[in-house]
Amino acid sequence: MTQVRRSAQQAAVPPSTVARLPGYLRALDELASAGVTTTSSDELARAAGVGPAQLRKDLSYLGSYGRRGVGYDVAHLAEQVGVVLGLRVERRVVIVGIGYLGHALASYSGFAERGFAVVALVDVDEAVVGTLVGGLVVEPFDELARVVAATGATIGVIATPAAAAQDVCDALVAAGVGGILTFAPRALRTPAHVDVRAVDVASELQILAFHDTRRQVPGA
């Protein structure tokens, strides 16, 4: 079971609520972009895809209850959510595996918009090492520890084939990285102090296939 260091305020927020906060922040950003300055719990819940009661309960953990007859101040609430998620301090990211996926992630502008800075790219392929991707030179995998120390990266992204993922994970942990996002379709073993989030596209598609099949079966 993974653990994450949190501030006193964040420690009181249940993991299930934390998982929904990015959706609330995305909805708030969309409302702000549309010129909306205040929003009701019903409107925000609808934009975030949750029920109003669930949203109010989640936001109560942040100490935000809105104002009766007025609702939530969009900018202020977005700031609160950002603080709880730790997005008001830039997080430095190293991406390991610069194939098609790694290349796309390295060039993705959305990271910077959320307070994440991709500061290093690493690969084992000599044909890739030394090339320029997203404005960064790809470094050799055997220099990962030096790269992490030099850049101050605290989050690692694994975009390698599944067979290499555990070795990459071990190397990231040994280098001092405390948070790992993996796209490799396999479970990773990590120490308790390292937090791991997995994005398994194939598994998500299989779940969609299950529900699609049920929709096509009468009475299911």
From TrEMBL:
Protein residues bound to NAD(+): G97, I98, G99, Y100, L101, G102
Location of the CoA-binding domain: 86-187
Cross-referenced InterPro entries: CoA-bd, NAD(P)-bd_dom_sf, Rex_actinobacterial-type, Rex_DNA-bd_C_dom, Tscrpt_rep_Rex, WH-like_DNA-bd_sf, WH_DNA-bd_sf
Keywords, alphabetical: Cytoplasm, DNA-binding, NAD, Repressor, Transcription, Transcription regulation
Pfam families: CoA_binding, Put_DNA-bind_N
Gene3D superfamilies on file: NAD(P)-binding Rossmann-like Domain (3.40.50.720), Winged helix-like DNA-binding domain superfamily/Winged helix DNA-binding domain (1.10.10.10)
Protein name: Redox-sensing transcriptional repressor Rex
Gene symbol of the encoding locus: rex
